[in-house]
Write a structure and sequence with these properties.
With 178 residues, the chain is α+β, with helices and mostly antiparallel strands. It contains 8 helices and 4 strands, in the order ααααααβαβββα. It has a 4-stranded mixed sheet with strand order 2-1-3-4. Helix 1 runs antiparallel to helix 2 and helix 4 runs antiparallel to helix 5.
Length: 178
């Protein structure tokens, strides 16, 4: 599978510069999040990949879908991405934009991988401990990864703390192989 980050980075940087200049950093992040989540649905993917529809028809459908949720800047982004056959980059653009925003605000982005959704109490406890270590304004995201078998894995920047059962089993296997 092709890595989309290098393709998405120029779009995200241009959007960030535009939003910074106009003072709409948070609003743009919200719009990108809406478009990124929608772009992963089967219906939107089907529309984007539909060979019968012209690029303009795809843009019109997406603009109508997001009509009340996005500004003219985001509509222009959709048009440019459609013209360049890059509508599949929406999620990557959102991720890069979010990183730029966090760096601008000096925030940490923490991703917590869990095998199953934690209870609300466990989730609050994890968030409280992470915020006490990484700052109260840290952005914490939970992602499900059933392959972990149990436990959790925490990723902050390029560092990962693996407390999963899968990680412990792999560590044990590596120790037994020596």
């Amino acid at each position: 599978m092709i890595e989309l980050t290098p393709l998405a980075r120029p779009y995200a940087k241009a959007l960030f510069a535009s939003a910074l200049e106009s003072g709409n950093l948070e609003n743009m992040a919200d719009e990108l999040k809406i478009m990124a989540i929608a772009s992963e649905s089967k219906e939107v993917i089907g529309t984007i990949e539909n060979p019968v529809l012209s690029r303009q028809e795809v843009v019109d459908i997406l603009v109508n879908l997001f009509a009340d949720s996005i500004t003219d800047t985001s509509k222009k982004l959709l048009s440019i991405l459609a013209d360049n056959k890059r509508l599949n980059l929406l999620h990557s653009i959102y991720s890069i934009y979010q990183e730029l925003l966090e760096k601008h605000k000096d925030q940490n982005s923490i991703e917590v991988f869990v095998a199953t959704d934690p209870s609300p109490e466990a989730k609050e406890s994890i968030e409280a401990k992470l915020k006490s270590s990484y700052g109260k304004d840290a952005n914490i995201y939970f992602s499900k990864d059933p392959k972990m078998m149990g436990g959790l894995s925490i990723k902050v920047g390029d560092e990962t703390l693996d407390l999963s059962i899968k990680g412990k089993v792999n560590k044990l296997v590596n120790q037994l192989n020596f």
